[in-house]
Amino acid sequence: MHVFSLRHSLVLGLLAVGLLVGGLLAAPAQAADPTTDATQTIDVGDVPDPGLVGRTWVPNPTASSGLPVSVGLLSSPSGPCVSSDGVYEFVATGECSFIFQQAGNASWDSTYTVVSFDVELAPTRTTVQIVKGEIRVSVADTVAGAGVEPTGQVAVTVAVDGSSGGSAIPLTLDGAAAHLETTLPPGSDYTVTASYVGDAAHLASTGSDHRSDPGLRLRVRSTRKPTASGWYRSVVKVVPVCSPTTAAIIGGCPAAVRLDEDTRGTKVTQRIVAKDGGKAVATTKVIRIDTTAPSVRFKGRRCRAADATSGLRRCVVKKVRRGGSTVLVATAVDEAGNKAVARKRLG
Fold this sequence. Notes:
Layout: E1 2-5, H1 10-22, E2 42-43, E3 51-52, E4 56-57, E5 62-63, E6 70-73, E7 81-84, E8 87-90, E9 94-102, E10 111-120, E11 124-131, E12 134-141, E13 153-160, E14 169-172, E15 177-181, E16 190-196, E17 205-211, E18 215-222, E19 231-232, E20 236-243, E21 257-259, E22 263-266, E23 269-273, E24 279-283, E25 287-289, E26 295-299, E27 302-306, E28 312-322, E29 325-334, E30 339-346
């Protein structure tokens, strides 16, 4: 912004003479008496620096004398500044010049001030949001104050796993926003970029969003470790462990799954979906559970044992002396490690 005062610029002094001749600058109300007239100054108030296309400005100048100040437009009346009942609208880029003048009276000298400033396009911010089944784009005017809504087009590109991206997809803004219905398959990283081309009132801008699938793994827990053959002999819990990446998981991480029934083989599968459409699936290895001890009995002096789920690993008979008696002890163990004991007194 440039401010020039009548008393501080010979060049503008000559300009003032021209304005007087042309009728733009009012002549003093009364000839100044250098021995009695006081010097006055003009405060032009808040001035846009810069002005922005689409905005308006209402000058509010004051004179130190308290006398009214008139405002005139020195630059072209067709733009970039256009006057309407004391309100100036910035309609295009360029430079605007204004003259603020106070004609003076019997007590005050006349004076004027010229103010010039540039009118520019407003900066913007382009925001991209990847959501489930959709890409959303919005363009905002980043300068505070009433302005015009960004219009025009944005070009959207989708890059997969670090690629340079495919062909741009043009979208037209509606209410400074646009959306593209699309599904980004899981298993890859995506970067979506939107480039706003700008319009008559706004600068171009670019924004992007990234999507990575969330992480999911399943922990198998039990109070007892599995045997070498993979059998559990106590209740098993499958606990999902979720690792959000670029968005929160819809519904949160799944609850743990409790397996408390004997089974010769089962798997647990869990799925999660993030708010940006990222997905993950995890499945356990085969889980075998046998919490029931085998059956065991004697047939003569021999062990007879069976197990319905994991199968019998062994059945061993031992002689034990108790007091004056001999006792046969049969111990059966199944593949899960469950034990059963039978006793038989001899003689």
